[in-house]
Amino acid sequence: MNPAYLFGCIISVIVASIVGEKLTDDECHQIGYNPSELYCNRCNELTKFELDSLKDSCMKCCRQDDSNSKKYSFARLEYCECNIANFPQIKGMCVKVF
Protein backbone atom coordinates (compact mmCIF):
# COMPACT_ATOMS: atom_id res chain seq x y z
CA MET A 1 0.00 0.00 0.00
CA ASN A 2 1.23 3.46 -0.86
CA PRO A 3 2.41 5.28 2.32
CA ALA A 4 1.21 8.65 1.01
CA TYR A 5 -2.28 7.23 0.45
CA LEU A 6 -2.34 5.71 3.93
CA PHE A 7 -1.14 8.98 5.45
CA GLY A 8 -3.86 10.88 3.54
CA CYS A 9 -6.53 8.51 4.86
CA ILE A 10 -5.35 8.92 8.44
CA ILE A 11 -5.30 12.72 8.14
CA SER A 12 -8.82 12.67 6.66
CA VAL A 13 -10.14 10.65 9.58
CA ILE A 14 -8.48 12.93 12.12
CA VAL A 15 -9.78 16.10 10.48
CA ALA A 16 -13.30 14.68 10.21
CA SER A 17 -13.33 13.77 13.89
CA ILE A 18 -11.99 17.16 14.97
CA VAL A 19 -14.20 19.29 12.75
CA GLY A 20 -17.16 17.00 13.16
CA GLU A 21 -20.01 16.68 10.79
CA LYS A 22 -23.64 17.55 11.11
CA LEU A 23 -26.01 14.71 11.81
CA THR A 24 -29.18 14.23 9.81
CA ASP A 25 -32.47 15.33 11.32
CA ASP A 26 -33.47 11.69 11.85
CA GLU A 27 -30.22 10.92 13.67
CA CYS A 28 -30.69 13.97 15.87
CA HIS A 29 -34.26 12.98 16.74
CA GLN A 30 -33.08 9.47 17.63
CA ILE A 31 -30.66 10.84 20.22
CA GLY A 32 -33.23 13.27 21.62
CA TYR A 33 -32.56 16.57 19.85
CA ASN A 34 -34.94 18.64 17.75
CA PRO A 35 -32.64 20.31 15.21
CA SER A 36 -35.28 22.73 13.97
CA GLU A 37 -35.54 24.25 17.47
CA LEU A 38 -31.97 23.79 18.74
CA TYR A 39 -29.65 26.78 18.49
CA CYS A 40 -25.90 26.40 18.97
CA ASN A 41 -25.76 28.99 21.75
CA ARG A 42 -27.84 26.58 23.87
CA CYS A 43 -25.25 23.85 23.30
CA ASN A 44 -22.54 26.18 24.59
CA GLU A 45 -24.51 26.66 27.82
CA LEU A 46 -24.22 22.95 28.65
CA THR A 47 -20.81 23.57 30.21
CA LYS A 48 -22.45 25.72 32.90
CA PHE A 49 -24.22 22.60 34.13
CA GLU A 50 -21.23 20.27 33.76
CA LEU A 51 -22.82 18.51 30.79
CA ASP A 52 -19.78 18.63 28.52
CA SER A 53 -20.39 15.05 27.43
CA LEU A 54 -23.54 16.20 25.61
CA LYS A 55 -21.97 19.23 23.95
CA ASP A 56 -20.37 17.41 20.99
CA SER A 57 -23.58 15.69 19.92
CA CYS A 58 -25.54 18.89 20.55
CA MET A 59 -23.22 20.87 18.28
CA LYS A 60 -23.73 18.30 15.52
CA CYS A 61 -27.49 18.85 15.61
CA CYS A 62 -27.79 22.58 16.26
CA ARG A 63 -28.29 25.42 13.85
CA GLN A 64 -26.58 28.77 13.95
CA ASP A 65 -28.38 31.55 15.74
CA ASP A 66 -30.20 34.01 13.56
CA SER A 67 -28.71 37.32 14.63
CA ASN A 68 -31.48 39.20 12.82
CA SER A 69 -34.24 37.67 14.92
CA LYS A 70 -36.10 39.90 17.32
CA LYS A 71 -37.01 39.13 20.91
CA TYR A 72 -40.12 40.58 22.44
CA SER A 73 -40.74 41.27 26.11
CA PHE A 74 -44.40 40.22 25.92
CA ALA A 75 -47.10 39.00 23.59
CA ARG A 76 -50.78 39.83 23.44
CA LEU A 77 -53.25 37.08 22.64
CA GLU A 78 -56.53 38.23 21.19
CA TYR A 79 -59.43 35.84 21.04
CA CYS A 80 -63.10 35.70 20.27
CA GLU A 81 -65.39 35.06 23.25
CA CYS A 82 -67.56 32.77 21.15
CA ASN A 83 -64.67 30.35 20.41
CA ILE A 84 -62.74 30.33 23.68
CA ALA A 85 -64.86 27.49 25.08
CA ASN A 86 -63.42 25.23 22.37
CA PHE A 87 -59.90 25.76 23.74
CA PRO A 88 -59.89 25.13 27.51
CA GLN A 89 -56.09 24.88 27.59
CA ILE A 90 -55.90 28.50 26.41
CA LYS A 91 -58.81 29.79 28.47
CA GLY A 92 -56.76 29.54 31.67
CA MET A 93 -54.10 31.85 30.24
CA CYS A 94 -56.54 34.53 29.15
CA VAL A 95 -57.23 37.52 31.36
CA LYS A 96 -59.99 39.87 30.46
CA VAL A 97 -58.54 43.37 30.24
CA PHE A 98 -61.62 45.39 29.36
Task: Summarize this structure briefly.
This protein is mainly α and 98 residues long. Helix content is 43%, strand content 0%.
Overall body shape: elongated
Total number of β-strand segments? 0
Low-confidence stretches: none
- Compute the number of helices: 5
Give the terminus-to-terminus CA distance. Answer: 82 Å
Helical proportion? 40-55%
Structural class: mainly alpha
Let me know the average pLDDT.
77
Main sheet: strands, sense, barrel: none
Strand content: under 5%
CA radius of gyration is: 23 Å
Helix-strand sequence: HHHHH
Signal peptide: 1-20
Organism: Euroglyphus maynei (Mayne's house dust mite)
Protein name: Salivary selenoprotein-like protein
Keywords: Signal
Describe the fold and architecture.
The chain is mainly alpha-helical and 98 residues long. It is built from 5 helices and no strands. The radius of gyration is 23 Å and the shape is elongated. The mean pLDDT is 77. InterPro entries: Sep15_SelM. GO terms for molecular function: oxidoreductase activity. Residues 1-20 form the signal peptide. This is Salivary selenoprotein-like protein.
